[in-house]
């Protein structure tokens, strides 16, 4: 090869490589820290209501600025682009390529209590309402990130009180069926399979066996005489009401009713108010076991829970023929002011308006001031609280309480049997049966 031609080609190739490298020198993305912020808007938290999430609080409201945004997660990636020269079949070739130099994840409008993300139920530019998160502590930090700013707003310390704990050391995973309280605060739990052992748990948590029922109870209460009364299925069409003597532990038949009774309560007068499944109405029994009154109320309906408080008997009933004035399922009450009869039906709350109002009912109780009603459900959301004056309801501690309440009672604390298994097909074994002590922020009405 002519030396002059070789030198010329070499100079030309060198110039070409230098030109490519020089031309690509600044073709690299700027680092994220050198980029201007996405927005100059600042996300701030100016206050939280309530100031402390005590027992009974279901919703926490956060106030601030620039809180709007979409509830999603976005991943932002940044690449560096470059060109270089490689030899392909002995021919210099320019190659274009890129490499990932950073990746950042931004949670838009996510609300966190420490590392627990809360469920947002309402938001505006100045307010976000969230469900009480499933954690407790004295120094919790609240954090919010918005799509209008990359800076996270923080607030704290914030205190959330604990509201639930296991109670009674039921570690055997027995199936459990009913719960009752006496006026001394002792809790009675009945085992749901034979033998139907009755356990007594003191307020301090000490557990002893005090007897056994002859059949599985559907409902149980401690009566005015201090003994346990219960209703359960009998054989050959019998519809017995049983009694456990709390002094001796002996079980006896108190009354073999002609009605299929499934739920009841005692009044301050010592009378028993009972109901069941389409069996002829609300029944009133005297302490001497005689029928004092059989009302025409709910004659064709299904009475699912009964509770007596402050001169009223409260009833949860499923209507056989619902109409504009009779919801398919509702809480009613009747005045007991006239001792010779039961007053007219008064609608307290339409349970079909509740988020969990169609799950099977597993009991009802009342706060000590009568302002709130608590309803247990055999469903994923096991406890509903009803504001009597405002005729509103909300799921109690949604996402905190385990599902499927089997029975409950409310004294100084609420005690609930939980067995996380559905009763509709396909039925699967319960993962766990246990009793929880739940602080709902108020005490219950007395059991007479």
Write the layout of secondary structure elements.
Elements: H1 3-23, E1 44-49, E2 59-65, E3 72-88, E4 91-108, E5 110-113, E6 116-117, E7 120-124, E8 127-131, E9 137-145, E10 153-160, E11 164-166, E12 176-181, E13 187-191, E14 196-201, E15 207-213, E16 217-222, E17 228-232, E18 239-244, E19 251-257, E20 261-266, E21 272-276, E22 283-285, E23 291-294, E24 302-309, E25 312-318, E26 329-335, E27 346-350, E28 361-366, E29 372-377, E30 383-387, E31 392-395, E32 405-410, E33 414-419, E34 433-438
Structure explained in plain terms:
The protein is mainly beta and 448 residues long. The protein folds into two domains: 30-160, Immunoglobulin-like; 164-438, 6 Propeller (Neuraminidase), CATH 2.120.10. The chain contains one helix and 34 strands. The chain has one helix spanning 3-23; strands spanning 44-49, 59-65, 72-88, 91-108, 110-113, 116-117, 120-124, 127-131, 137-145, 153-160, 164-166, 176-181, 187-191, 196-201, 207-213, 217-222, 228-232, 239-244, 251-257, 261-266, 272-276, 283-285, 291-294, 302-309, 312-318, 329-335, 346-350, 361-366, 372-377, 383-387, 392-395, 405-410, 414-419, 433-438. The strands form nine sheets. Strands 1-2-8-7 form a four-stranded antiparallel sheet, with no helix packed on it. The model is unreliable at 20-40, 70-76 and 101-108 (pLDDT under 50).
